[in-house]
Design a protein that fits this description.
It is an enzyme of class 1 (oxidoreductase). Its cofactor is FMN; [4Fe-4S] cluster. This is NADPH-dependent 2,4-dienoyl-CoA reductase. In the N-terminal section; belongs to the NADH:flavin oxidoreductase/NADH oxidase family. The chain has 674 residues and is α/β, with parallel strands linked by helices. The strands form seven sheets. Strands 3-4-5-8-9-10-11-12 form an eight-stranded parallel barrel, surrounded by seven helices. A five-stranded parallel sheet has the order 15-14-13-16-27, sandwiched between helices. The protein folds into three domains: 246 residues, TIM Barrel (Alpha-Beta Barrel); 136 residues, NAD(P)-binding Rossmann-like Domain (Rossmann fold); 117 residues, FAD/NAD(P)-binding domain (3-Layer(bba) Sandwich), CATH 3.50.50.60. The longest helix is centred in the N-terminal third of the chain and has 20 residues. It has 21 helices and 27 strands. The chain is globular and about 75 Å long. Helix 1 runs parallel beside helix 2, helix 3 packs parallel to helix 6 and helix 6 runs parallel beside helix 7.
Amino acid sequence: MAHSTYPHLFEPLDLGFTQLKNRVLMGSMHTGLEEAKDGFDKMAAFYAERAKGGAGLIVTGGVAPNWQGWLKPFSIRMTKKSHAKKHKVITDAVHAEGGKICMQILHAGRYGYHPFSLAPSRIKAPINPFKPFKMSSRRIKATIKDYAKSARLAKEAGYDGVEIMGSEGYLINQFIVKHTNKRNDEWGGSYENRIKFPIEIVKAVREAVGSDFILIFRLSMLDLIPNGSTWEEIVMLGKELEKAGVNIINTGIGWHEARVPTIVTSVPRAAFTWVTERMKKEVDIPLITTNRINMPQTAEEILSNGQADMVSMARPFLADPEIINKSEQGREDEINTCIACNQACLDHVFKNITSSCLVNPKACHETELVAQPLQEVKNLAVVGAGPAGLAFSTEAAKKGHKVTLFDASSEIGGQFNMAKQIPGKEEFYETLRYFKKQIELTKVELKLNTKVSAADLKDYDEVVIATGVSPRDPKIPGQENEKVLSYIEVLKEHKPVGEKVAIIGAGGIGFDVAEYLTHNEEENRDDLQAFFKEWGVDMDFETRGGIEGKPLEVEAPRKITMLQRSEGKMGAKLGKTTGWVHRNSLRNRQVQMITNVQYDKIDDKGLYITKDGKQELIEVDNIILCAGQLPDKSLFNSVVESGQKAHLIGGAFEAAELDAKKAIKQATKLALEI
């Protein structure tokens, strides 16, 4: 029976020897559980929950076929029977929930973060300090055998298939393009020689596992690097892979070193599906499309337009393991949508911390963040309906406590109400929609437009204070001048801002305000042509790698100067995987960035600063203060003084850069324990 709202999404996919129950792939993500203590049990819990949540097929994080292919020393690999045995707990757990799972085989090549990395040629990657060794012909042949052995062991471990990682700039991709393959033997030179490596791997794997085993190949369909593949070359490789025995081709977008955003929030939803759609005309096997598909409506549209046969969602399964079941049951308003912030998933992986999710701290911590049994039902008051207050209230109410949530404002969301207006942060609307629905479902009593004092809270068993932050005062002489605005006046009160602006402070808020002021109100955030034009991507694919060279300078409505006191790179504290995007986006809009300054005074002419011992005047219409925040602890202190049991969470506890990730995690933990 076809599903009424999403008939294409819930149509099974028949591969001949096996059938997938729907068209959703949970894409591969390295989470850090692969190397964690008790990692296999944790991965089993993590993947089983997603299988239970309705994923049609799951792909694991990358597993190396030999130690030289490690992402970093002692990373996960599949090279012997004892390894296969350990994986059994994962495959058993997924199958018990009615799911299917493939293991991804990934050889890092020159992206391996260790001194023994190998590559087709001895060329260092810009994102890695280690220079790889050039592979000998013998080593290449041995590596092909290692892929086949790894796949055979995956089958023994109970996996339903393997995905061969041939994109994102890892080893196979390094063989394919001239940019990294300077060889002149049978594995280099002409394109036919350069694609021999992936084709030989696929043939060897197919022979090792037989015909009744899913073989996915993740093909780089848009390299986004200079000297990448041309469209004709990619099509040729796709056709050869089909002949060699691949069941499904997955779309890979961009190398890790590419300077085009591919997965951050500012990337429009399903921005790269046009690439998969082009390939649909060229091969007969099913194609998976990927990147920024985070809601069922988007997925259904792609499938019904015939742009792909399956959609890959990776991070959306971190945000909500039940995204597919909720879609099938018509509970879309209950989906905890991925906001593509990368703060707890990718940024963690790059820092060697186990991944999680800003909007769902239980992700990858399924065995640790578990609700403690309810001892007694408590009558709890929560003050502040920002991210921390919302997460605590709904989680505590779900557990069975009676919760009343107060906020002085007329809407829930706290600082998220400012964030959602920033161009490229529109996904925050989804988080607020999710919490609104959760308040309704968990029967939290919500009291908006209500400012409370300690006396109002005396009848509750315990009080949770989530009153957030107040802006830090930079104490600049003359800051009472009418030219001066706080970020709250700009983002919340929408006070008019002139054409020449100085922004004081270059943390997350300074960057947000700059983004906000350099975009026109009427810019369409879903305009793919404009997005790709700005980042120099050639949608006609007439250039190698699909990039046309330099990003475009965009006509900005205002001339902005951003300033920070400290030396060093501006926005150094922004996320590792997103900071460069914000910096480049503002550069594309001609924002001037000045570091290592001291602020002298403000008067009717503008802002006086001293830089390198010289005083200068920046003539502006407005000066906007974004000089950080301080925790707002006043209510907490008076509640404690009145002798009541109180907890402090979120920004009120610690006002680091607007850190919703910490706030939501701390709130969730407290709610599970209370």
